[in-house]
Specification:
- The chain has one domain.
- Helix content is 70%, strand content 0%.
- The protein has helices spanning 2-11, 20-23, 41-49, 53-72, 83-117, 119-123, 127-155, 165-168, 171-191, 201-214.
- It is elongated, with a radius of gyration of 22 Å.
């Protein structure tokens, strides 16, 4: 079990590609950083075609509002975001990532352990292979659960921070956003380790001993 836990920790050090949508939040990109997947007309077109009619209309309206505000403020000297706005940006990014980290770690540990005690013993696969399969299950589950976590965060009152376009691009906003995500993932992954409280090494040894006896 200790080997599996070590493998789980190593595998959780990476953020999975399926959650890039959560990383594309307000003020999280540098000025010269490519904005995947909308960094070319082709990628932008692919993104638009994946949206439904209502989503396209809403996106167009918000883009027009954003650009009109940016144009109106071109001649105005931008003021940096206030301390309250910085805190809100941090908390706004922290909350959904707590849910992401919690589900990711909890599902991966639970699934990986069951795979190791069942398929792993039957097929004789390694602990790392069982951890990788548990990570696969966690990724697949994350694709379907990400939307629910975002919806829950919205129901808790976490709306988009009230920032001007220039304030959204300031380094203070980007730094606060990245810190919020890091804090959220850390807290979520720690909380997501709770399945380890219900897993004992005796159960693993017993399963392996029973399998060896059957052979």
């Amino acid at each position: 079990m200790l080997r599996f836990c070590a493998a789980a920790v190593r595998l959780q050090l990476r953020l999975h590609p399926g959650r890039v949508a959560w990383q594309r939040q307000l003020g999280t990109h540098g000025r010269k950083e490519p904005r995947e997947p909308l960094n070319s007309p082709k990628r932008a077109k692919e993104f638009i075609y994946r949206l439904q009619a209502g989503e396209r209309s809403c996106l167009l309206k918000e883009l027009q509002n954003f650009e009109s505000i940016a144009i109106a403020q071109e001649t105005v000297e931008p003021s940096p975001p206030t301390a309250a706005q910085i805190r809100y940006v941090l908390f706004h990014n922290t909350l959904p990532f707590i849910g992401f980290g919690f589900l990711d770690n909890a599902i991966m540990i639970s699934a990986g352990t069951q795979i190791e005690l069942s398929i792993g013993i039957t097929l004789g696969i390694s602990t790392m292979a069982a951890a990788a399969l548990g990570n696969l299950v966690s990724d697949l589950a994350g694709l379907g659960l990400a939307g629910y976590v975002e919806a829950l965060a919205s129901k808790l009152g976490m709306q988009v921070p009230d920032l001007t376009p220039k304030q959204a691009d300031m380094w203070q906003t980007r730094l606060s956003s990245h810190m919020g995500k890091a804090i959220g993932v850390f807290i979520g992954c720690v909380l997501g380790m709770f399945p380890l409280l219900f897993i004992s090494e005796d159960e693993e040894k017993k399963a392996k001993a029973d399998k060896a006896t059957q052979r």
